[in-house]
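Re: How this chain folds, sequence and tokenised backbone to follow
How to read it: Take the token row as a discrete description of the fold.
Start of record: The labelled sequence and token lines come straight after this line.
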Amino acid sequence: MSHGSRQPYGARFAQDVATALRHDDPGLVVAVSFLELNRPSPGQALQQLVANGQDEIQVVPLLFSAGYHYRVDVPAALDAVRESHPELQVRTAAPLLTDAETDLIAALDSGVSQTSSPPTPSSATPDGLVLLAAGSGDARARAQVNQLAQAWGRQHGLPSDVAFCDLRGADVRAAIARLRARGAQQVVCGSLFLAAGRLLDAGRRAALEAGAGDVAGPLGTTPALLDLIRRRCLEPAAAG
């Protein structure tokens, strides 16, 4: 279950994940759905699974944190289907950021190593890390992203910060400035985005304008992220 996007990349990412899961386990029935902006909706996808004879379904939200979409939109979509199919067993996996720092740090490192920016001579020795992420009105969601940024820095023994992207890029420039004030000269930006889009593009532009050395593209279907999604497909989850 993906958020949905006006850009084609978001829908393509969800389909790429489904393709990878089916390739790994041809017997696994995988359906893609979107909370908004794209089709099929969660209700449409679940109804199709029921029509095909599935009565136990694990919903895997491709959402990083337990923000509004996870806490409100996902349960609402599932409740609508349960009303017409009370016998259906539906479980919802945890968000991607839950107990997954190791996986996501590996995915961030992979993204940085395949940076979409032209490498610079000093890019092999960064001395500061900025995690680019989408903003959220949920304080708990922002706290989870901050925790990941700090864990990423600790993993590499480097100062780190987080920047919540918007179309103006002010937070990105401020995060890089904070690291420079702490003595960092070669700042590298990782991307906590699943797919390309306007926010990440704006964040990348702001970071490069502020003097960042390398700026990673979206995580995409990196092996570490796919491993995490596979685990979410199989791990026990409380019935909702």
Summary: The helical segments are 8-24, 42-51, 68-84, 101-113, 139-156, 170-181, 198-209, 223-234.
